[in-house]
């Protein structure tokens, strides 16, 4: 009988995370732990997953996403029995850029949720993985972190922090010759409740497609995955545009 994988998802109520969970439960014998802030939403997702996979073991945990002490205690408690095999950090929000410019409280909230909180979770999770010399961690960033743009530079700056953090973590693991892998996920705009206010819905990627590519990249231990893949080319062009051209683009 194959070993039951222990999979941890931070931001378990996000649409992309939910579709990743469905794929893991469909293809793997696993214990799934969903971490979030809203207990009722977590139970809704957990109940749906258990209907789809009746033999699944799905648990929920609530925690203060902005408390380093609470995050560390939660992750340590979850690692007391069996270590985590796969962890996905998937939470975040898409703030209105103009509102963030005009309200520093909203600006602070956005940076804390999209940058500080994921790093705190990642540090807590990777510490246990390093001790065991085992595990795969994936952190969802965004193509928005590739270059600052006037339309979303608060959000983009948060995702740029995530990218630099993951790069440093990957370097640390490489120097240690660790068996632990870390994958940076860079989705383009995806059809989720977070993007409900974006026009041109037909151009958004489906969460099913994005989840499939995330699960594949994590299982393969890839360092970076753009999803859909076209965003690798798009962002390479945008990153390398000279500023005298870029400054004229209303994006």
TrEMBL record:
Alphabetical UniProt keywords: Oxidoreductase
Keyword Oxidoreductase in record: yes
Family: Belongs to the short-chain dehydrogenases/reductases (SDR) family.
Domain of life assignment: Bacteria
Annotated InterPro entries: NAD(P)-bd_dom_sf (IPR036291), SDR_fam (IPR002347)
Protein name: SDR family NAD(P)-dependent oxidoreductase
């Amino acid at each position: 009988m194959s070993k039951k994988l222990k999979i941890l998802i931070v931001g378990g109520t996000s649409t992309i995370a939910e579709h990743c969970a469905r794929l893991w439960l469909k293809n793997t014998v696993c214990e799934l732990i969903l971490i979030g802030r809203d207990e009722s939403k977590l139970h809704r997702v957990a109940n749906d997953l258990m209907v789809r996979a009746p033999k699944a073991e799905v648990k929920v945990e609530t925690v203060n996403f902005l408390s380093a002490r609470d995050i560390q205690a939660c992750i340590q408690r979850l690692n007391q029995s069996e270590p985590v095999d796969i962890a996905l950090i998937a939470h975040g929000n898409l703030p209105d850029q103009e509102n963030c410019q005009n309200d520093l409280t909203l600006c602070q909230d956005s940076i804390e949720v999209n940058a500080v909180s994921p790093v705190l979770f990642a540090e807590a999770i990777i510490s246990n993985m390093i001790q065991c010399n085992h595990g795969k961690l994936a952190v969802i960033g965004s193509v928005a972190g590739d270059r600052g743009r006037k339309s979303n530079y608060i959000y983009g700056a948060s995702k740029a922090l995530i990218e630099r953090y993951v790069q440093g973590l990957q370097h640390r693991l490489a120097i240690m010759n660790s068996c632990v892998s870390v994958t940076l996920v860079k989705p383009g705009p995806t059809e989720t409740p977070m993007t409900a206010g974006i026009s041109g819905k037909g151009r958004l990627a489906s969460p099913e497609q994005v989840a499939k590519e995330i699960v594949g990249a994590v299982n393969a231990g890839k360092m970076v995955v753009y999803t859909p893949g076209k965003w690798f080319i798009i962002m390479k062009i945008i990153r390398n545009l000279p500023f005298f051209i870029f400054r004229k683009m209303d994006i």
